[in-house]
Amino acid sequence: MAEPVQLGKAALSGLRVLDFSRVLAGPYCTMMLADLGAEVIKVESLQGDDTRQWGPPWFDNESAYYLSVNRNKRSLAVDLRKPEGHALICQLTQKADVVVENFKVGDMKKFGLDYETISRSNPGLVYCSITGYGQTGPKSSLAGYDFIIQAEGGIMSVTGSESGIPQKVGVAIVDVTAGMYASHAIMAALYYRDRTGIGQYIDVALFDAQLGWLVNVGQNHLVTGKPPVRYGNAHANIVPYEVFETKDGYLALGVGNDKQYRALCQLAEREDLWLDPRFQTNPGRVVNREELLPLWRETFKRCSSADWLAKLNTAGIPAGPINDIPTALADPQVEARGMVREVARVGGKPVQMIGPVAHFSKTPANIYLAPPHLGEHSGEILQQELGFSIEEIDLLRKKGVIA
Question: So which residues are the catalytic ones?
Answer without folding.
Answer: 175
